[in-house]
């Protein structure tokens, strides 16, 4: 089974004014689609063909730049669309809130750390909120399309929330104002989705 571009799950303009429709259309239809197609081309005919993306990334040969860049791009954007889905956003609560409080003291303090990670990631990359197997959560960032599932990247946890800080994610609307985009992102996080991911990992 080849990897398929996941449906966005909501309208391109559903996140305005925080993320504009044109950015969403290009980001999903061109960028994510491109990563998906190139990932399929990179694994075709190799022993990676047919494996899950999680399996591929966790056991990645970091010198395999085609799978590293496009496998990361495929996985990262799939998570991103889920995390900004505007339906039934909920609020941070339950065991994830407890883990956030334990690690950072409060949701706001965690989001400050997250915004700092996103803001200080030089060039292109991502900032993450990850969960470890013991239930601890941790903020980190990674360059390009790398993510913490890959060997030796970031905090080594599993991403449950992440922001794309490549310029293609925000430049049309925000130009060089990455901090404004990051701030807007933190206001549109679907905490129900993030919490479900946390609970699925930690139990
Ligand atoms: Mn992107």
Task: Provide a concise account of the structure shown.
The protein is mainly α and 203 residues long. It has one domain (20-203): minor pseudopilin epsh fold (3-Layer(bab) Sandwich).
Describe the structure.
By secondary structure, the protein is mainly alpha-helical. The protein has one domain (20-203): 3-Layer(bab) Sandwich (minor pseudopilin epsh fold). 49% of the residues lie in helices and 10% in strands. The protein contains eight helices and three strands. It has a three-stranded antiparallel β-sheet with strand order 2-1-3. Strand 1 and strand 2 (137-143) form a beta hairpin. Helix 1 (21-43) runs antiparallel to helix 3 (65-83), helix 4 (94-104) packs across helix 5 and helix 5 packs antiparallel against helix 7 (178-187). The longest helix is centred in the N-terminal third of the chain and has 23 residues, at 21-43. It starts with 20 loop residues before the first helix and ends with a helix. The model has no long low-confidence stretch (mean pLDDT 97). The chain binds manganese (III) ion (MN3). Manganese (III) ion (MN3) binds at residues 27, 31, 77, 164, 166, 168-169.
